[in-house]
Amino acid sequence: MTGERTADIHPVIDTALVRRLVDTQFPRWAGLPLKLLDRAGSDHVIHRLGEELSVRLPRHPGAMGQTRKEAAWLPRLAPHLPLAVPVPMAVGEPDFGYPWPWAVSRWLDGEVATVEGLAESADAAVGLARFLAALQRVAPGEDRDGLTVRSLAGRDGATRAAIAAVDGTFDAVAMTELWDAALGAPGWDRPPVWFHGDLHTGNLLTTEGRLDAVIDFGELGIGDPSCDLTVAFTLMSAGTRAVFRDVLGVDDATWARGRGWALATGLNAYTAYAADHPRVAAQTTRQITEALIG
């Protein structure tokens, strides 16, 4: 199948399909109740399966490799991490017209993190810094098949186009200065380390107002960890960002690149979704604004 045809695939995923996939491939879970989750993101459709499991199906070709990646790597990383992460239980195969591998994982309780709940929480800032520090300490090893490669410079054209497109809504001069500084900052000159790759409020779970789990490792990779600093601008205030940066020990160059990642990803989501999704508009406006603050 050509790349163009693959990119056009957007399967219809409903509860009836998920029921057939689970019942035929994993009979031990047949009959457990299925409930569609409203909190599922843009990459996956997620159902709760019984009380202890979740079923996660990629929505589009860009997410189709994430199931096997998480199944391969999360069991190796989890013992080293101070916060809960998904526990893969099984990988399902394409069937009934659904074209990609899909996952069954252990259910993680919790509420999706919010700015209102955690922005001023020094405990959450410290917890995230310690989580990233622990992730970065895990030895990468030689096997890196399927892991994400991140390039800030590779986003240059798209980011400058987005800056021009939102001029008037945001300060284009300030954004250009931030972006130039991020691209001009010295690169990561230490051995490559693990990064989560998509660390934002939607991929953090809380229990009784306490940060408890990190989910969705589909963009997991090895390299420059500055992309994970985006969470400092999606979730934290200026004060808790300072706590986070101090505990993680981030140097000026890495922080500059992290601000660049926050700007680039915020602009990408804003230009793609803000016009039709008020929640995304509010979240990305905050992310861009906080990145400009630093």
Q: Care to describe what's here?
A:
By secondary structure, the protein is an alpha+beta fold. It folds into two domains: 3-108, Phosphorylase Kinase, domain 1 (2-Layer Sandwich), CATH 3.30.200.20; 112-293, Aminoglycoside 3'-phosphotransferase, Chain: A, domain 2 (Alpha-Beta Complex), CATH 3.90.1200.10. It has eleven helices and ten strands. The strands form three sheets. A five-stranded antiparallel beta sheet has the order 1-2-3-5-4, with helices on both faces. A three-stranded antiparallel beta sheet has the order 6-8-9. A two-stranded antiparallel sheet has the order 7-10. The N and C termini lie far apart (45 Å). 38% of the residues are buried.
